[in-house]
User: What shape does this take?
Amino acid sequence: MKKPIVGILMGSESDLPVMKAAADILKDMGVEYEMDICSAHRLPDITAKYAGSARQRGIEIIIAGAGMAAHLAGVVASHTTLPVIGVPLKSGALNGLDALYSTVQMPPGIPVATVAIDGAKNAAYLACSILSIKYPDIADRLALFREKTRQSLIAKSDELKQGSK
Amino acid sequence: MKKPIVGILMGSESDLPVMKAAADILKDMGVEYEMDICSAHRLPDITAKYAGSARQRGIEIIIAGAGMAAHLAGVVASHTTLPVIGVPLKSGALNGLDALYSTVQMPPGIPVATVAIDGAKNAAYLACSILSIKYPDIADRLALFREKTRQSLIAKSDELKQGSK
Amino acid sequence: MKKPIVGILMGSESDLPVMKAAADILKDMGVEYEMDICSAHRLPDITAKYAGSARQRGIEIIIAGAGMAAHLAGVVASHTTLPVIGVPLKSGALNGLDALYSTVQMPPGIPVATVAIDGAKNAAYLACSILSIKYPDIADRLALFREKTRQSLIAKSDELKQGSK
Amino acid sequence: MKKPIVGILMGSESDLPVMKAAADILKDMGVEYEMDICSAHRLPDITAKYAGSARQRGIEIIIAGAGMAAHLAGVVASHTTLPVIGVPLKSGALNGLDALYSTVQMPPGIPVATVAIDGAKNAAYLACSILSIKYPDIADRLALFREKTRQSLIAKSDELKQGSK
Amino acid sequence: MKKPIVGILMGSESDLPVMKAAADILKDMGVEYEMDICSAHRLPDITAKYAGSARQRGIEIIIAGAGMAAHLAGVVASHTTLPVIGVPLKSGALNGLDALYSTVQMPPGIPVATVAIDGAKNAAYLACSILSIKYPDIADRLALFREKTRQSLIAKSDELKQGSK
Amino acid sequence: MKKPIVGILMGSESDLPVMKAAADILKDMGVEYEMDICSAHRLPDITAKYAGSARQRGIEIIIAGAGMAAHLAGVVASHTTLPVIGVPLKSGALNGLDALYSTVQMPPGIPVATVAIDGAKNAAYLACSILSIKYPDIADRLALFREKTRQSLIAKSDELKQGSK
Amino acid sequence: MKKPIVGILMGSESDLPVMKAAADILKDMGVEYEMDICSAHRLPDITAKYAGSARQRGIEIIIAGAGMAAHLAGVVASHTTLPVIGVPLKSGALNGLDALYSTVQMPPGIPVATVAIDGAKNAAYLACSILSIKYPDIADRLALFREKTRQSLIAKSDELKQGSK
Amino acid sequence: MKKPIVGILMGSESDLPVMKAAADILKDMGVEYEMDICSAHRLPDITAKYAGSARQRGIEIIIAGAGMAAHLAGVVASHTTLPVIGVPLKSGALNGLDALYSTVQMPPGIPVATVAIDGAKNAAYLACSILSIKYPDIADRLALFREKTRQSLIAKSDELKQGSK
Assistant: This one.
């Protein structure tokens, strides 16, 4: 499992601060990934080639983050039958609502699995959920992560209850 | 592969006409599925049990369709680490915008793979994409489906060009 | 009346600065309360247990604040027939509009009494109004509070009229 | 319990078809109610008098339904400390979004317990939840209603599972 | 014309910084005004009395600014047949969209002349336009103001053209 | 008072069914009016001339109804200092929301008194309110209209109360 | 000028009823055009080829109509430096708002000239405006069209004035 | 080509920081332009004259930027058959959504080529695309610009891939 199985794409380098959160989580979960800039509009042929060849290169999921009229995830999905996760990014005057609609409202036949605006973390967790149907160890790590979140919240609940005493 | 691997849930029987489209596509793609009514609000314990036991029952993906304050997909996702696909349904005064926001804007840690409002078809295609990373024959069938869509559109394009002559 | 009769729940500790306003008002009004973190998605079983046992523990109203796809109030309401007040919290790219729709657009049978986005204060006042039908002294204190608000506004009105002279 | 304890108000007789659903549920739940037309704008003094005298007349909850710039619930709440439930009605070009905002976004001090657009049914169920903290038999009837809903959904779930066999 | 003919009302003293702009313009235009705090929800009786007696006190126009579920202008209009100008104020999570809908979407019979969100200046100019049908000198001053605006813009246009040379 | 004092403009003849309601009310209120088609975009010079000469022709108020990017009221207001009432019309895909924003969000200096989407009736009542500061008989007729509305609602309230007995 | 200089593309044959209006106007204006189906998602390579070769084939403007997450115009624009006119189509639950945002909110460098939702007619008139800078006869025909529109509106204005006499 | 062929208009000098980006790009692309302030509302006659005489003065495209109820582009388009590019500006409480609707939702016959909110850069690139159908050297420069953008993104992609190693 040394070769990347998740590709994280973003439309511009300014998207890196948000999209890096997905990479960090995949690293924590032990999932190999690669990251790239791949603009639907400014690098359409490279984007098409990336998506079109992803499956035979061993990629199993593509995460695509883009803002405004966010076409990246949809364009990637049009060139592959791999699962594509779209992250609408908050940028510009409409605060990501344009990106959300441009990502989620895909016409029948070419789906994009959309997460929340700036939801790069959930894109990574969703990728893990998808991989978990094939790799049992990722299922285990997800279960562990859920349990840790749970314990951490219970600790915070206890703190709050102490504090309000 | 006789046992269902996709669970299609809906919040009420009135959602069936839309959600049935997902079932039809899965059948066409040769994917075993089961369908059920599972309200986040009116059957919370059954929903929790369904989601919590899905993985060990062999389910690999859960598709959940709900309208208005559509909590079903999120609640299902909170009880399983399987990939959960949310279908926001168009109903009520807000035409599904409430269901879209209630489904896609999940907080970090519990992702829902959201498709378009009333996008039951794409929920099924997305399920196939996800399954395709594990089952090569589903990858093949998806590729075939894409090619058929392509040929059908090319034929319509030809018709249109003839007609406008 | 030493035991808490109002439970204030929030989805994460980051919601405390807003939700504390509800606690402060209840304290001022002499209403016993308890505060807890209770995530619909990350602690679903604890949330279910909390809501399901609230009535027999003497709780009479539950206030639940959550942001984004705010399912907390709805999930709590699905496990109790007590009145549940939902506070949609302003967080994320949509400024609480997602939380508002996720909280108020509940399907028939499982109501959530929704207040304004970040409306923790009104959640507390609404709780007092509800309690006032059972506890006459709370009705008196509410009337007093209204009268004080009134006098304070009249004083400000006088100031403004002086100042503009 | 012969005297009405719930007042159902609406801004115009054209709101009756929607608001009647609240009355029907209250009747089913054995809760005495009265219904009236009480426009915030066209009968402001009568509305003020109704709200201002409601508590001493024995009313315990007021449900107010109005459309467009729906001021009725807020105006009623400004004249009473009783719990006021607002039902934003779907009418006009904005489909009730204007009524939702006009009802739910109340400033601090004067809360309105808002339900979904056209959510007259939930207004009634919420009224029952509120009354249930004082009248144990209403708590019992609510629990019964929940159980019946549950059984009815389970029956529909069984039907669906049979049908899809 | 020593007695005020325009009343400027606002729902709280926090609205003064925006609403003062209306007063400043009226002063510039030589229109006598009075300013007051008059909450639809917290001072309903005083608001009703103010509006109901305004015409006989010599007031000819009422400007009312309020935020969130902005009922002030509508409530004032329900108690007078004078022209009422509503200024939706930008406050809270919805940035004044709630106030805009609550002010402009008045039902037939009780109109509110609505200006832009935070449009206190235009409320004053609109008041002058209305007064101009009765007081020819205000018509003259408005024409003068328009001409000055025009000359100022032409000067800025010249500057811009010089600068870009 | 034989010459028209209110001008009712609309952007196209398709707006007549909605805008006619304004004319009907003015007729009932004994206010002389004229009606015309005056497109901001397709008849800009005629629109400019109409607005620019309206005051000297004896017009005292202009009501302008338009849909979509509704510029008519704003363009009229830019050519006159008379009060201009804008009626955003519901047409096209955005149901009049575009027309509302295009009409109400006027920049400082050129106000438009905006009423609800399709609010032609309130445009007429607002015109009467404005005229009432100059013509006492219109003030009387408005008061009469309010009283009749009031009596009619009280009658309907009585009917409703009888019916629900 | 026998070869088409305008290409009208649409994402599916169901868009033809709306997009045909653009063709009809171009025919009236004597502009040669071609029409084709060219889905950004289902025929990405054909779309890329069409756009990439359009200029050398003599096409001077491309009009692209698509609904929902309408990527067609943006994808076409990414493959050509010709002017691309986007027509957001009203379809699905969001009534074309998604298509509007997906079409107009293009990131810097790849512009799409966007017209109104379902604005196929204006797409054609805009194409004529663009062509008019190169082909003087099209400028003449546009001027003529404007004059005819003007006369027709004046005639309707006269009718309206007669009718209201 | 010494005389300006593109006119850049803005509604107020406060729009200059955004609109200057269009000028900078035109300068880079070797396109002569002029810049001016031209308010639809405060300088309607000058705006009309500017637009009406633009074609004979040699102007080939007009770019118009305005905020709020942004009528500038539409008013300019009503006085010329030249292509008019509208830039909705982000200002006021609605963040430019009002300006977007006021600019793009033009009625049939008077089109405005609308770009993104604050999309002054794309307005310039769109102007170049339009000019490119007449001036081959602009087509060349646009192609060069696209290639440079492409190389720059590829370089950034390489950097990102190095960095993530």
Q: What stands out?
A: The mean pLDDT of chain D is 96.
